[in-house]
Amino acid sequence: MLRAGERASSRTLLRAFALTAALAAVTVLAAVVALGLGEMRISAVDVVRALVGDAGTAIETVVVQWRLPRVLLGVVFGAALGLSGAIFQSLTRNPLGSPDVIGFDSGAYTGAVVSIIAVGSTALVIPSALAGGIATALAVYLLAYRRGVHGFRLIVVGIALTALLGSVNTYLLLKASLWQAQMAAVWGAGSLNGLDWSDARAGAAVVLVLLVPLLWLGRRLRMLELGDDAAAAMGVAVEPVRLALIVVGVSLSAVVTALAGPVPFVALVAPQLVRRITRAPGVQLVPAAVMGAFLLVTCDMVALNVPPIALPVGLMTIILGGAYLVWLLVAQSRKELR
Amino acid sequence: MTTGTTAPEAGAAGIGDRADRRRRRLLGLAAAAAALAVLVVLSLVFGSKPLPLGEVIEALGRDNGDPRVIVVEQRIPRTVLAIVVGLALAVAGALMQGLTRNPLADPGLLGVSAGAALGVVLAVRAVPAAGDLLQVWAAFLGAVATACAVFLIGSMGGRGRSPVTLVLGGVAIGAVLQGIASTVVLLNQSAFLTMRSWQAGSVADLGWPAVATIAPFVGGGLVLAAYAARGLNATALGEDLATALGGNQWLTRIAVVGAVTLLCGSATAAVGVVWFLGMMVPHIARWITGPDQRWILAYSLLLGPALMVAADVVGRVVVIPDEIPAGVVTAVIGAPVLIFMVRRKKASGL
Fold first, then answer.
1. Range name among A95-99, B154-158, B321-325 with the lowest pLDDT average
2. Residue B350 lies in a domain
3. Fewer beta carbons within 10 angstroms: which end of chain A, N or C?
4. Quick check: A175 and B342 CB within 8 A?
5. Using CA atoms, how far apart are residues B185 and B203, in angstroms rounded to an integer?
6. CB contact under 8 A, B342 and A152
7. Where are the transmembrane segments (chain A) (predicted)?
8. Mean per-residue pLDDT for B319-348?
9. Is B40 inside any structural domain?
């Protein structure tokens, strides 16, 4: 069954491969440009030389010590968000079922706000944001569960909890000192500002660890797309696999949120763009990851360099992604009309 | 969303039945008014310093020191503001649900409040000395633009569309607007300070000036709402039938958008974004009265203030001597209600 399908879709596969390669190339290019931009402009040649250790110490400090962790994190986090979105959109069978839309980001934000205000330091932000995101995800899953999880219910339950947590966050910020509140609000805007090598190492390590179970789960995700019964017939333990996928997807999203704050809509848009370009019917994890990396690196570069003051990348993605989402809804309802 | 069950007054009902139903509805309305009155009294009695009812009554009549200050200068204005905001949001929610025939419509959920809030934020940022009136007008601009955009999205997709499309469109637009607003606020420390308390939906410490600023606009919104109610009853029958009945659907729509703008813009300019109130109240009203929009609006007019005042009282009482803003309380109550609604077999049609 899968064999026959594979043959028929060899063209889609080729398109996906070409897209991935092209996107990867463009992402590398964007990364090199991003490394050269800033208060001190550095030519692309010098950037490459600095990366291989063949430039002066001054340039090397700027490129490798200051700018590289940010760009690297843009790539890693973008990929993580793209993967997370692809997993959730496949599970909910809905383009809008991505973690940012259904409220996991706000759970992670609540965790971070609680730790910033209650503990007063940023040391516990990462674990508490992870805990908050995963707890919210489980709550959404359980509340939406009724003889299986239906996509529509999952989304509305997510929206309800987002509103609830948003209000709680506002209240917590109100109780905090101005300094703490502003710190939390800066974090909440979603930005790669001020991330250094230690953050980059930690973030990349967690994402890599999460990729391991995904190697095993990816095939099963494809089978789940054929329907629960078909997947069960092929020997997939449907609900455990689904739960595992949710945990991995949430963790990927929560790592990003923990270090950079909520960066909305990348998880929503990346898999959708891939799907539209390759015209493939199902989930495509690797292209979605590369697309996410491309989007985040480019958005961050623009947000940092184009406006008169550096804006948080979260603002860029929210405007781009929101516009895309509205367009998507319009396109979807047009299709329904036909 | 079948058309058959939504006819306001089933034609087969006898005259006696109708009179009976009317009496029941009026009785219910009286009960709602009584509930509101009780809540207002509670709102004057409870707070970080609970006062005995006797002292409250005494304070209303003559100057008896501390109680007089607390009751007259703090609790009465905030209660009145809660009433105005509550009825504005409830009526706005009822109108939106009636027009979109979507049980999940809510000014907060559909992003209209976020649009109004962005208007206020931009006004404060652009004109630091912006008076209340300018802020209210900025809120109207934001609200009307968002309402039009959301209704446009909602009106696409024809008959079989799921109620979620509209909600998602609203949530998306709301998220974008809120993201822009919070960034604008973030880049400016003084704006951050003033916006922080406003964003939480609190009716405390705003006093009579806030009430006086928004009351005329809320009044205008209610007049438009009263005009739109009859047309909305026709809308409930479906677009084709409504046109056949002769009502002008476009006028109804414009009246609804105008009313929602005035009501929701005023409420948001005064107290910030309040979630779910506009969703819950019309549901309670519809549950009591059935689908006649005029009765739903009348009930919302009383139940909205009741819920808002109740939320304010609860927020004052649970963490004495601290306070939880009323907007946070409505979100905490409303989210489970929304979840309950989608967990039922089907979201209830209108």
1. B154-158
2. no
3. C
4. no
5. 21
6. yes
7. 12-35, 71-91, 111-144, 151-174, 200-218, 254-273, 285-303, 309-330
8. 80
9. yes
Question: Which tokens hold the place of B106?
Answer: 């809510």
Q: Is B180 on the interface with A (CB under 8 A)?
A: yes
Nearest residue, CB atoms, A318 vs list B179, B186, B327: B179
CA distance A236 to A240: 9
Distance from CA of A317 to the nearest CA of B (A): 9
Q: Do A329 and B334 touch (CB under 8 A)?
A: no
Q: What is the mean pLDDT of residues A48-73?
A: 84
CATH number at residue B293: 1.10.3470.10
Cβ neighbours, 10 Å, residue A218: 17
Of B310, B193, B43, B347, the closest CA to residue A155 belongs to: B347
Cα gap B231→B228, rounded to integer Å = 5
> The tokens of B278 are what?
């506009």
Is the CA virtual torsion A136, A139, A143, A145 positive or negative?
positive
Within 8 A of B314 by CB-CB distance, chain A residues are none
Rounded-to-integer distance, Cα A324 and Cα A273, Å: 10
d(CA B34, CA A126): 50
Q: What is the pTM of this model?
A: 0.82
**A237 to each of A88, A187, A282, how far by Cα in Å?**
18, 39, 20
pLDDT tens digit string along A255-307? Answer: 888 788 888 889 988 998 888 888 777 778 999 999 999 999 999 999 888 87
Domains of chain A from N-terminus onward: 2-337 (1.10.3470.10)
User: If you measure CA to CA, which chain B residue comes closest to A325?
Assistant: B172
Decide: A183 and A125 in contact? Cβ < 8 Å. Answer: no
Whether B103 maps to a domain, the answer reads yes
Domain that holds residue B106: 14-343
Q: Which three-class secondary structure string do you get for A189-257?
A: CCCCCCCCHHHHHHHHHHHHHHHHHHHHHHHHHHHHCCCHHHHHHCCCCHHHHHHHHHHHHHHHHHHHH
Residue of B nearest to A317 (CA): B176
Whether B9 is in a domain gets the answer no
Question: How many CB atoms lie under 10 A from the CB of residue B349?
Answer: 14
Residue of B342, B345, B346 best to disrupt the A interface, most CBs of A under 10 A: B342
Candidates B267, B314, B306; CA nearest to B284 is B306
ipTM of the complex, rounded to two decimals: 0.79
Using a 10 angstrom Cβ sphere, with 0-12 exposed, 13-18 middle and 19 or more buried, the burial of residue A33 is middle
- Do B172 and A325 lie within an 8 Å CB cutoff? yes
